[in-house]
Amino acid sequence: MAVKNYQVEGMTCGHCELSVQEEVGEVAGVSGVEASHETGTVTVTGEGFTDEQVTAAIEEAGYRVVE
Amino acid sequence: MAVKNYQVEGMTCGHCELSVQEEVGEVAGVSGVEASHETGTVTVTGEGFTDEQVTAAIEEAGYRVVE
What is the pairing mode between strands A41-46 and B2-9? Predict the structure, then answer.
């Protein structure tokens, strides 16, 4: 089981967190997503997902991965 | 047709605007709602709605009317 953290710009509230969680949750292999607008972090757990897939999902939700 | 403005605290993004618009749009007599997180304003148009109803709807959405 992999656990990866992403730093994300632009999340300002709980709705933003939900949008990111929904979109990233659809990536194949992802079993859990925790987003925090306070810290700008998105923590993804699962098996077999790639950084590219997670980054694309976060952008699809309307936000930007900064590292 | 009445047009009324409300100053609202706590909207931080477009999702917040949508939440307010959805909730206030359900008030009887309201025909239009425009919310802006940049200015913190909610503009309500319609006929026969009361400030109390709009304020209650905004609070139901999770925000606070400040004037």
Answer: unpaired
